[in-house]
Design brief:
The chain is an alpha/beta fold. Helix content is 53%, strand content 13%. The chain has a 7-stranded mixed beta sheet, with helices on both faces. Helix 1 packs antiparallel against helix 2, helix 2 packs antiparallel against helix 3 and helix 5 packs across helix 12. The longest helix has 17 residues. The protein is elongated and about 70 Å long. The N and C termini lie close together (11 Å). The structure holds guanosine-5'-diphosphate (GDP). This is Signal recognition particle protein.
């Protein structure tokens, strides 16, 4: 995970440590390299610019240069700023407040890992003592409903019995009534994905949002697609006002461009990350731990 970044930061920091005393020029040189590394990692251009500026402001301060371990201080500044970039200190917990059943809506492009994430989330919620109902609301992709039903069977978590000829909004509304009657406290809505964002897809998602008033509207985005994932997040956010992002396939992402840009570009936090194909490979996202991990 994000191994390229770790390797490159490591080599920049080795050089810094090698200097002993640091001059402002040493720091500027390191920051030039940090900038390149982040751009190579496919981090959004403006995000890189702001990040480097923030580090520069703190790192060329006299306190850092005069300290006994200036290189360590600079590294700490980079770590802090990386954490901040990814939302450290902000509340990124899922919100289940309000009268049950609470709806959690997952949306995203086809192949991003939406259906898998619905299953993973259901398992996680059950472990947290909630009682989730999976709701297949993708009536376009053949087998999408069956795929979620299979996931549900595998996890022994109930799946609402949608049919492909139903309207997705009607499915979600009927599932909510079913949940009310049967004591399920959380609806996990697996909405339709498309290969590309289009007006029909968005219109449908907006209708589901208006009807179900989900507490969480989470974009499922594939980390391996870098800036594309960031652009997708920005478009979905514009139409739906996302509450957060589930960033999938982080296990296979060596570069980290999406992980480092999504929050800064959209203002919406990464709440959960997918770290593998298995159903238990979903974790709460901790920006501080991720920053620590990137810096090795
Ligand atoms: P959907 O079209 O968005 O519903 O995507 P799927 O849930 O069908 O997932 C597409 C593929 O991505 C499947 O092969 C999943 O196993 C895989 N996948 C989903 N999440 C992850 C993840 O976090 N890591 C890895 N390595 N694969 C994932």
């Amino acid at each position: 995970m994000l191994d390229n970044l770790t390797e490159k930061f490591d080599s920049i920091f080795k050089k810094l440590r090698g200097h002993g005393r640091l001059t402002e020029e040493n720091i500027k040189e390191a920051l030039r390299e940090v900038r390149l590394v982040l751009l190579e990692a496919d981090v959004n251009f403006k995000v890189v610019k702001d990040f480097v500026e923030a580090v520069r402001e703190r790192a060329v301060g006299q306190d850092v240069l005069k300290s006994l371990t200036p290189a360590q201080q600079v590294i700490k500044v980079v770590r802090d700023e990386l954490g901040r970039l990814m939302g450290e200190g902000e509340d990124n917990r899922l919100d289940f407040g309000g009268r049950p059943p609470v709806a959690v809506m997952l949306c995203g492009l086809q192949g991003a890992g939406k259906t898998t994430s619905c299953g993973k989330l259901a398992l996680k919620l059950r472990r947290d003592k909630r009682n989730p109902l999976l709701v297949p609301a993708d009536v376009y992709r053949p087998a999408a409903i069956d795929q979620l039903k299979t996931v549900g069977r595998q996890l022994d978590i109930p799946v609402y019995d949608s049919q492909p000829d139903q309207d997705p909004v009607a499915i979600c509304e009927a599932a909510r009534r079913f949940a009310e009657l049967n004591g399920y406290d959380t609806l996990i809505l697996d909405t339709a994905g498309r290969l590309h964002i289009d007006a029909t897809l968005m219109g449908e998602l907006v209708r589901i949002k208006e009807s179900l008033a989900p507490k969480e509207i989470l974009l499922v985005a594939d980390a391996m697609t870098g800036q594309d994932a960031v652009n997708v997040a920005a478009s979905f956010d514009e139409q739906l006002s996302l509450t957060g992002v589930i960033l999938t396939k982080l296990d296979g992402d060596a570069r980290g461009g999406a992980a480092l840009s999504i929050r800064a570009v959209t203002g919406k936090p990464i709440k959960l990350v997918g770290l593998g194909e298995k159903m238990d490979a979903l974790e709460v996202f901790h920006p501080d731990r991720m920053a620590q991990r990137i810096l090795g």
